[in-house]
Every structure is written in structure tokens, then in C-alpha cells.
Write a structure and sequence with these properties.
Layout: H1 2-14, E1 19-23, H2 28-36, E2 44-46, H3 57-67, E3 72-78, H4 79-84, H5 88-94, E4 100-105, H6 110-118, H7 133-139, E5 143-147, H8 153-162, E6 167-172, H9 186-201, H10 205-217
Parallel strand pairs: 1-2, 1-3, 3-4, 4-6, 5-6
Helix pairs in contact: 1-8, 9-10
Length: 219
């Protein structure tokens, strides 16, 4: 996930873009934004910190682009949140709002899933069967591209940011990448351990293995 944000940020800086980065609250997207995006006099962020809001990033981006048409506006949306207001992609084309929508596509309600796991529960009803958001955007008449490998990300971001019009970049990420808190508490460690044991006993050992590989080995 850090590579996605760092690539977006570094290329925006090289273009000297005054950017508003937007996130949906209630998901891991907000955490990644707060962790990796540095604000300054030209680059600003907008998020919903206390309300647990889902799906607010894209509509806020559209409103900001309408109010500030000469600013680069980028929405960092989770796949679950974007799916809730998918029809607003039509608003982008109808109103000719050249906002940029980055989709963090981990095929899950990721933060809800994480909350279940740290309580020692097997995650339930959090998996998402997503369409190809890149192809969907293209069908609606805007730029749309899907990225499934880190090697393809930088070139895709350049095409995405350079496109003169509304654009969607659908970035596939690991559903097992943990959003680590500033301070890891014992009860969270115990909860994750309990979840891992339950996953193995319920025939879901591949999930536990992927959790270890994606967070501690692959890094």
C-alpha cells in the first residue's frame, strides 16, 4: 500500500501539483493517508476522523472539484466505500468533473475484517465480489485502468494523473496487509493469535499463512 501512495505523491510533487487528497473514514484508506501523505501549504487533506463514515471520499472529491476546478483533486477510496456510491461515477461524466479516483481494491471491507480479527473472531460477511472498476470506468466514458502488479504501478499513475478528464485507477492490494496502530496492545496480539488458531482449525490455514507472509516475510 505504501508504494501506491508514495508513487502518487512523488509524481504529484514532480509536476508541482497543488493536490487535495481525500479519504473515506471507517476504512483503512484513511489510515494509509494519515501515515504516508505529508501536507503543506499547497497539498491538503480532507477526511472524516471521528464519525466512522464510509463512502464519503468520492462525493467530497466531486464537490471540491466543482468548487476548485483548477486544483488537482484525488479521492483515495476503498472498494467497499466506492461501491456504495458507484452511481456517482455517472455524475463525474455528466458534470465533466475531472477528479481523480484511486480505488484501494483489497476485495473486502478491510477495516471491518480487521476489527473482527483483533477480537479473536473469524471474519464473516466482509469479502467483496468486485467488478473490474477500471473497465467499468472506461464503459462510462472516462479513463479507467486496473493495476495488479507493483511493477506496473508507476506508469499507470503517470497516465492516470496526466489524463485531462475524470479518471479511475483501480489498484489491487493485499487483503491481509495489517493496519498497524501506533502502539500494539497485548489484547490485540492475543486476539489475532486466537483468530489465527480458529482459522487453522476451520480449514482456513491459507489465510493465516498469507497474513504472516504479507506482513512479515514479503516486506
Amino acid at each position: 500500500m505504501s508504494s501506491t501512495l508514495n508513487t502518487l505523491l512523488s509524481y504529484s510533487i514532480s509536476m508541482q501539483i497543488a493536490t487535495l487528497f481525500l479519504r473515506q473514514m471507517g476504512g483503512s484508506a484513511m489510515v494509509w493517508m494519515l501515515r504516508y501523505i505529508n501536507t503543506n501549504g499547497q497539498r491538503r487533506t480532507l477526511t472524516s476522523l471521528k464519525h466512522g463514515t464510509m463512502a464519503n471520499a468520492m462525493p467530497q472529491a466531486l464537490g471540491l472539484k466543482k468548487a476548485f476546478p483548477n486544483r488537482q483533486v484525488i479521492s483515495m477510496s476503498g472498494d467497499g466505500g466506492l461501491a456504495m456510491l458507484l452511481g456517482d461515477l455517472l455524475t463525474m461524466t455528466q458534470e465533466k468533473l475531472a477528479a481523480k479516483i484511486v480505488i484501494i481494491n483489497n476485495k473486502s471491507l478491510n477495516f471491518v475484517e480487521l476489527e473482527q480479527k483483533v477480537e479473536g473472531l473469524l471474519n464473516n460477511y466482509t469479502d467483496l465480489e468486485n467488478p473490474d472498476f477500471g473497465k467499468l470506468a472506461s464503459a462510462l466514458g472516462m479513463f479507467g485502468e486496473s493495476v495488479e502488479s507493483p511493477e506496473a504501478l508507476e506508469d499507470a499513475v503517470i497516465r492516470f494523473l496526466n489524463y485531462n478528464g475524470p479518471a479511475v485507477l483501480n489498484v489491487h492490494t493485499s487483503p491481509n496487509e495489517l493496519v498497524m496502530p501506533p502502539n500494539v496492545e497485548l489484547n490485540s496480539v492475543v486476539g489475532m493469535g486466537l483468530y489465527t488458531a480458529k482459522a487453522v482449525l476451520h480449514g482456513r490455514s491459507e489465510e493465516a499463512i498469507s497474513l504472516i507472509v504479507d506482513n512479515f516475510i514479503r516486506k
